Amino acid sequence: MFLEFEERAGRNGDWAAEFRWMLPRRLRLVADPRQGRLACPDLLLDIAARSPLRAAIEEFVGGRHAEDLPEHRRIDPTRAKVACSLRARRLSLALQVTGDQDWAYATGKLVNLVHELVLFLNMYWTDYAHRSLGAPQE
Amino acid sequence: MSQDPASGGSRRSFLRAAAAGAAAAAAVPRANAAAQEYEGLAPADPKIPDEIAGRASAPLPNIDFPMTGADVFARTCRAEGLAALFCCPGNYEVIHAIADQGIPAYSGRNEGAMASAADAFIRVTGEVAACSGTEGPGFTNMIGAIAAANSCRTPMLVLASNRDLRGEDSEQGIQMLYQQPLTDGIKKYGKRLILPSRVHEYAAYAFRQLRTGIPGPVHLDFPKEVAVARFRTARDIAYNVEKDRYRTESRPGPAAADIGKAVALIRQAQRPIIVSSTGVFYSRAWDALRAFAEHAQIPVVESGPTRGQFPDNHPLTASDAPNALPSADLVLLVGQYCMPTVGEYAFGPDARYIRIEPEGGDIGRNLPIDLGIVSDERLALEALAEACPKLAHDPWLNEIATARKAFLAENDRYYGLGRGYTDAVHPAVIAKELADFLYRGDIPPDQTTVVSGGYGIARYTRRWLQANRVGQICNGAYQYGAIGPDVGYAVGVAAAVQSGIGPQAAHRGHPIVCITGDAGFGFTGMEVETLAKYRMPAVIIVYNNNSWGTWYPARNEANRAPLHLFQENLRYDKVAEGLGGHGEYVCTPEGFRPALERAWKVAEAESRPTVINCQAKKDFWVKEAYEPGFLGKVEPGVMAYYH
Fold it and tell me: Nearest CA to B306 among B131, B478, B435, B462?
């Protein structure tokens, strides 16, 4: 599923991968085992700080911990906690790996979260999807 | 000041007089028309010519040797059960020969619209139909429709005349064009006929391609020498064999080992799903699909240019549960000829894929597979039902039911918002009230065949439309994404229902519905005349937002926005009346349902088309001003049209 997949291991035990998937540009996944953090930096571009779009994304992302979600769709907060951050109009996603330190679990959940977030934007934020995600206008 | 001898006055007074005269001259036609109207000389109403009204009872000529090349070709078409011809005049020898064989033939106002009509006819019947245009401009008018049919994988026979071979490359006369290269990439097979004696042989080629494998358009062009060639006896025709000798009805079946692997994958999966697409329709696999889905309790979601092979009101449908799709862990793509790329369908990155279709050359394209099965779709589904044990997936089905409930609740919310905008007709009002009329009123919910066209309006109407039986929805322009063929599609669908062809048999004669936008109406709106002259009962809903749907991203750019706008408040309903149809103009939400009921009465009682011109606002696409704005979509399912 992931095209042009490239990975590299860092000097301090961190790890990064880049690949093409879902978006018109390459995605990055960065793992920092020392900090227990798995991130997708600069996932979404051109997001204004005080905007309904940012609020909607944060609500969607935060909702992935909801107890009424099926287990295979939910991010168990006792195993990984998700957060968004915005800097210079670039939104990043990150999972803090907690509990049993299951990095495979965290990686699967982060990748699926990216998938569902793009579906969400294509569904409810068509202007943004057209401008920034390469969605056709028609 | 100079004097003008003609007026006897000054140049200034001459110019004033000239201007007054010009205005008076321009006013004359209007004054005459007014005089006609008010002095008892009202213009006559549109009238259907007696030749059209009485065509069903017109005797057929006895076609026998000596025959022309066109007659030989038409005879082969009849033997193959060619179900209809849609054309504009041109390619005269061939279209006349086809009509003389008693094959239903329809003539419209534009070759492109008629090619779209043929495409839609096939998409709701499963029968092969033909379109035809004259050489040169008639043929090139069909290119867009052929491209759309190609993306739909429609087995459409494209016929066009060509100037004579003697004048090749000379530009002698008019309309010379070398046709075949123009359909490269948008056809399954094509041939410019050269040797008249091989006309039957190439007709056989055409029908072999139309009726086997993954379907697609077939393009034959006829130089004059071929069309007018005379054959004294059957011995003059090369390869003159019957259809059971020039093609086979045999279909590829699945290898037992492949079925075994598929069953193993299905048994491992917790949330399997079947995507029922184009191949299920053309292989007539809907009963086998239903039997397998019910046996293994696997939900089904639809994709493709025709919907209804798995009913939207079946308990196992997942077509209206988009939120559940990312949960699927095994996806069986059955007959998915127009293949999405990674990420275009909503299934998650962990999903595994089984692809089933009759040719191996496409399996594995765009989306990596876990198992490919080369087989006719019906035979594969029958084998799966036989080999697979009875299964249960209750938690998965409950998840789908929850997702469906959320989707329908969202529809209700959109309707509530739309109904609150009282000075124009919001698309959610059209979508919901049309659905209530078609599925929750006096009309049986599986009766009305719908052309689901339009662009922005379709983002709403697709959410509410239902396909409760085979061929109930013709899914607009599909992956080619053309704006405008919708009223052309309506001609084809209306013809299919009027004659009760294939899956439309049980609904013969009932009105059809076509949804389009004002931009789309501009392309094929003249075909309202075609619908009227053939007495085809169609209700055409025009979503009139005074613009191309592409306006809203450019709305704040002063130099760009004008490129996307029309005049406001245009009266497409009056165009319909002038073309022999009925017109309704709706400007408020409460006006839509009564207009729909009136249009239906006209359709049922008079077999005439109606245009319901729904006056909307272009600003409805602006989310910040008119929530929910322009809608997105998820595929596959009810909202799908890309694949």
Answer: B478
